[in-house]
Amino acid sequence: MPLVIAIDGPAASGKGTLAKRLADHYGLPHLDTGLLYRAVALALLDAGLSLDDREAAARAAEALDPEKLDDPRLRERAMGEAASRVSAVPEVRAGLLLWQRRFAADPQGAVLDGRDIGTVVCPEAEVKLFITASSEERARRRHRELAGRGETASFAAILADIEARDARDAGRAAAPLRMAGDAVRLDTTELDADAAFDEARGIVERTRGSAR
Ligand code: CDP
Ligand code: CDP
């Protein structure tokens, strides 16, 4: 059976870094599903439309070209917040679901990271990880990351941003952020990216070993 690894968690928990490392290690394609929601938000903003225009958001999700996810603006801080707003619209989620499932059905297997991979997109994934870290540590990471890219924002503003996004993502009705019952939780507050990768690889090996 092709190995599918589903990775979920809140902003700056380290899920993207981990997903990339696991994908490299196992030779699997990787999809950062947050980029899809960011691209829907960017399409609305580029067209001069409101992020609260649900019909336009649904159309943008339908029309999204997943091959065009390399716009550097997608990684900006404001786009995470904008993505969180459009991602609460059920039609947007439905419009992106099929494409994500097709990606996950690659005969080679796949690694996907996001908020609802283990619960909605790939409920049958062989390995499910739920990555967490304290909100202070996540804000420190984002602060460092943004400073490295020349985006200036205070630590306090980033922390407030992260806590507001956690509340919105976990509180929405459509596919809220929550851990799948059969996921393994990995708290990376005290782990750097190397240590988190080692732990995760151990979990993957144990899960696969026990399934055989
Ligand atoms: O990297 P970071 O965790 O800051 O954000 P992201 O993964 O790019 O996701 C941006 C926003 O998209 C999140 O706050 C979620 O609201 C939404 N999202 C989602 O609803 N479902 C996913 N599978 C991935 C992202
Ligand atoms: O994808 P997500 O938003 O969950 O987080 P990320 O983009 O993987 O990580 C956010 C930042 O924290 C990056 O700059 C990573 O290098 C860093 N990081 C870390 O300091 N310690 C970890 N265990 C994982 C990531």
Count of DSSP H/I helices: 9
Structural class of the helix and strand makeup?
alpha/beta
Q: Give the overall shape.
A: globular
CATH topology: Rossmann fold
| Total DSSP E strands | 5
Keywords: ATP-binding, Cytoplasm, Kinase, Nucleotide-binding, Transferase
GO molecular function: ATP binding; CMP kinase activity; dCMP kinase activity
Binding site for ATP: 9-17
GO cellular component, one term: cytoplasm
What's this entry about, in short?
The protein is of the alpha/beta class and 212 residues long. It has 9 helices and 5 strands, in the order E-H-E-H-H-H-H-E-H-E-H-H-E-H. A 5-stranded parallel beta sheet has the order 2-3-1-4-5, with helices on both faces.
Description:
The structure is a single chain. The protein is an alpha/beta fold and 212 residues long. It has one domain: Rossmann fold. The protein contains nine helices and five strands, in the order βαβααααβαβααβα. It has helices at 15-26, 34-46, 54-63, 77-86, 90-104, 117-121, 135-148, 155-171, 193-211; strands at residues 4-8, 30-32, 110-114, 127-132, 184-187. The chain has a five-stranded parallel beta sheet with strand order 2-3-1-4-5, with helices on both faces. Helix 2 crosses helix 3, helix 2 crosses helix 4 and helix 3 (54-63) packs parallel to helix 5 (90-104). The radius of gyration is 17 Å and the shape is globular. The structure holds cytidine-5'-diphosphate (2 copies). One cytidine-5'-diphosphate is lined by residues 11-12, 16, 33-34, 37-38, 80, 83-84, 87, 114-116, 165, 169. ATP binds at residues 9-17. InterPro entries: Cytidylate_kin, Cytidylate_kinase_dom, P-loop_NTPase. One of its GO terms (cellular component) is cytoplasm.
